[in-house]
């Protein structure tokens, strides 16, 4: 079977893959293969200060050991700044993006103590200009509510104006913001389906808003269940998630498959057999009600 399906796994190389990131990688690989599509890998290293040298190659090596090989050469966000600048220029020219002179302390004082995943809801202070103060960052002017459909979570909605505010496209330190980079790259790579962890679902309305502002297509979205740490929080590098022990790659794949609700038999002795067994079960997980 062939199709126009194009999916991607987009790890940030701030540390090696762990059990949680393997679940996301396996899910998007399975979804691409089940649809007869292509599976890509994008290294999201736009935040260079947080990415140890060589960690990108560590991650690519982990994926190879697990049999998760991309159908095209990987791309690195750190090499794509001209694409992001061109998108920002378009948004500025259309009036959708504007310069912001506010410091984080100033935003906190005006917005009140309402952090949203580490970000304060921006009150729109610089929408009408910076008053002669130098521009520190660039923001997208947001409007109203975004409604969207997730393939697992079902109907979703977020009021960008009240819940997020005008969000950053280019940071005060000159680095590109995740939201702009991922939208530009998904469009440039022709991504039709985004399969990723549920913790990133909150980003989707911002990305849809950017896609609409830039006249880009919106992919289908599927957000997978999270792997939780013993304290009940999402397993992540920030809370001490251990790097994958790849002494037994089929065992790691079986564990990831179990987290996705795919009960694989323990008799799968090789990476290829394990992936084939998971792929045979994946179509039964494609409906919202099945997850």
Task: Give an overview in words.
The chain starts with 5 loop residues before the first strand and ends in a 10-residue tail after the last helix. It is built from nine helices and twelve strands. Helix 7 links the parallel strand 11 and strand 12. The protein is 33% helix and 17% strand. The model has no long low-confidence stretch (mean pLDDT 90). The protein is elongated, with a radius of gyration of 20 Å. Helix 6 (178-188) crosses helix 7. The chain has 291 residues and is α/β, with parallel strands linked by helices. The protein has a three-stranded parallel β-sheet. InterPro entries: Glu-Q_tRNA(Asp)_Synthase, Glu/Gln-tRNA-synth, Glu/Gln-tRNA-synth_Ib_cat-dom, GluQ/Sye, Rossmann-like_a/b/a_fold. Zn(2+) binds at residues 100, 102, 122, 126. Residues 6-109, 162-243 form the Glutamyl/glutaminyl-tRNA synthetase class Ib catalytic domain. It is an enzyme of class 6 (ligase).
**SS element count, helices:** 9
Elements, N to C (H/E): EHEHEHEHEEEEEHEHEHEHH
Order of strands, main sheet, comes to: 1-2-3
Mean pLDDT: 90
Tell me the radius of gyration.
Answer: 20 Å
Portion in helices: 25-40%
* Secondary structural class: alpha/beta
Kindly report how far apart the N and C termini lie.
24 Å
Low-confidence stretches: none
Find the count of extended strands (DSSP E, 2+ residues). 12
In terms of DSSP E residues, the strand content is 15-25%
């Amino acid at each position: 079977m062939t199709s126009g399906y194009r999916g991607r796994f987009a790890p940030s190389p701030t540390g090696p893959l762990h059990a949680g990131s393997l679940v996301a990688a396996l899910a998007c690989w399975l979804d691409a293969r089940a649809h007869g599509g292509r599976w890509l890998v994008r290294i999201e290293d736009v935040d260079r200060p947080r990415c140890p040298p060589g960690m990108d190659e560590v991650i690519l090596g982990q994926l190879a050991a697990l049999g998760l090989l991309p159908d095209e050469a990987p791309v690195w966000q750190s090499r794509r700044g001209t694409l992001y600048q061109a998108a920002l220029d378009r948004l500025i020219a259309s009036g959708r993006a504007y310069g912001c002179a506010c410091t984080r302390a100033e935003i906190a004082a005006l917005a009140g103590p309402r952090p949203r995943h580490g970000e304060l809801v921006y009150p729109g202070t610089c929408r009408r200009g910076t008053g002669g103060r130098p521009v520190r960052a660039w923001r997208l002017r947001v409007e109203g509510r975004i409604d969207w459909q997730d393939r697992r979570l079902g109907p979703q909605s977020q009021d960008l104006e009240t819940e997020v505010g005008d969000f950053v496209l280019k940071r005060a330190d000159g680095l590109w913001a995740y939201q702009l980079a991922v939208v530009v790259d998904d469009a440039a790579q022709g991504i039709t389906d985004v399969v990723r962890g549920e913790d990133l679902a909150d980003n989707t309305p911002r990305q849809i808003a950017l896609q609409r502002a830039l006249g880009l297509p919106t992919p289908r979205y599927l957000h997978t269940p999270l792997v939780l740490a013993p304290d009940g929080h999402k397993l992540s590098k920030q809370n001490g998630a251990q790097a994958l022990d790849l002494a037994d790659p089929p065992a790691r794949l079986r564990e990831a498959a179990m987290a996705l609700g795919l009960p694989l038999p323990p008799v799968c002795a090789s990476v290829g057999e394990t992936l084939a067994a998971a792929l045979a079960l994946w179509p039964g997980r494609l409906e919202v009600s099945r997850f």
